[in-house]
């Protein structure tokens, strides 16, 4: 069974940084795309960032652009989300996701429905 395991969440103050990690259990991460999503209380799960493995194309939600960075490391079989200048509105459960759908080399993954496997989530709380 596919299993993604996130780690690195926690309680921080506004302006701090955190790095989230996500590893696949017992197998190699997808060669197509990886992503991070988040769900705040009372809100829908929303996209944060995605990365396509073949071309390395990244996509960021406007709310995190310039503050967050997604990266994928083959040797470590891990995808990261570096989060800087955190704000209270970044408070949410963060989920990593994996897509096994091959659209095209230059395709930009931006939709929740394009991702097939999900982790259990890690809580990020940013206090003001």
Quick structural gist:
The protein has 128 residues and is mainly beta.
Question: How would you explain this protein's 3D organization?
Answer:
- The chain is mainly beta and 128 residues long.
- It has strands at residues 4-7, 10-13, 18-24, 33-39, 46-52, 58-60, 68-73, 78-83, 92-99, 117-118, 122-127.
- It is globular, with a radius of gyration of 14 Å.
Summarize the helix and strand pattern as letters: EEEEEEEEEEE
Total helix count? 0
Tally of DSSP β-strands: 11
Mean pLDDT: 93
Structural class: mainly beta
Instruction: Describe the largest sheet.
Output: 7 strands, mixed
Rounded to the nearest angstrom, the distance between the terminal CA atoms is 40 Å
Fraction of residues in H or I helices: under 10%
Strand content: over 45%
CA gyration radius, whole angstroms: 14 Å
Shape annotation: globular
Low-confidence stretches: none
What's the arrangement of secondary structure elements?
Elements: E1 4-7, E2 10-13, E3 18-24, E4 33-39, E5 46-52, E6 58-60, E7 68-73, E8 78-83, E9 92-99, E10 117-118, E11 122-127
Parallel strand pairs: 2-11
Antiparallel strand pairs: 1-3, 3-8, 4-5, 4-9, 5-6, 7-8, 9-10, 9-11
